[in-house]
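Give me the fold.
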Amino acid sequence: MRFLGTITVPGVPRSAQVARAFVSGVAPDVDDEAMADIVLCVDELVANACEHTASGTGGQVTVVVSAREDILRVTVLDQGGAQGQPRVRTEICSEDGRGLFLVDALSKSWGCQPALNGTAVWAEFRAMQAVSGE
């Protein structure tokens, strides 16, 4: 994996917008359709970190972007929470809890692991090269 960049933002909901813009800015030549999926997932992962972990109570969220060949990986590091590992919820009529469902549907793969004093949630995307001159 080639490191593309990292940003640390406050654990507040508006930080998701900052994270989306950051990922869009550091991702190399990703086509518009793929980038739309990627930034939607970044929004969901950052929002989850702010809502469900200690990052959202005065903490921070870190976003790390890396790539290899045609894969872009985004990792969101939070400051831990009491709810355990993130999981996909399948209750269709629920008013919330569908963020990881979207990440699961739009990413090539995703997962989570303990990291420092929190959790790292990562998602990988097929990031097709944009065609020059379009």
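The longest strand covers residues 2-10.
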